[in-house]
User: What shape does this take?
Amino acid sequence: MKESDFFALASKEVQLGKVDRALQARAFAEAKGEHNHAKARYLELRAAELQARYALHRQEKRKVEDDARLAQRLQQTGEHKYVVSRRTTEQKRLKRMRLLPFLGGACVLVVSVLFYWIKFRH
Assistant: This one.
């Protein structure tokens, strides 16, 4: 898609009343309250956002297609068991990493409770 296509999509959204309020507020702030400039800035920001989403979608689609080709090739060569095992290990590692911030907060809470319990139990 060309850049002008994204501007056309953004313009169509505005005509239909589908406006991102946060983005609209940002455009208004950047235009220092000038209504016409704010409209133009909103279209620029929204077109850029649509373009970024489209690029991400294409990248994800390519990754899925590449993964499918790789899986097919590995299955033909008999190496798929190793790759599946490695991917599962990686998924478990990422899951543990997502829990770390929660566990850190929980540890601080437990230590705080213990501290106050010990300090004020007498």
Q: What stands out?
A: Helices lie at 3-16, 21-30, 35-77, 80-120. The two ends are 72 Å apart (CA to CA).
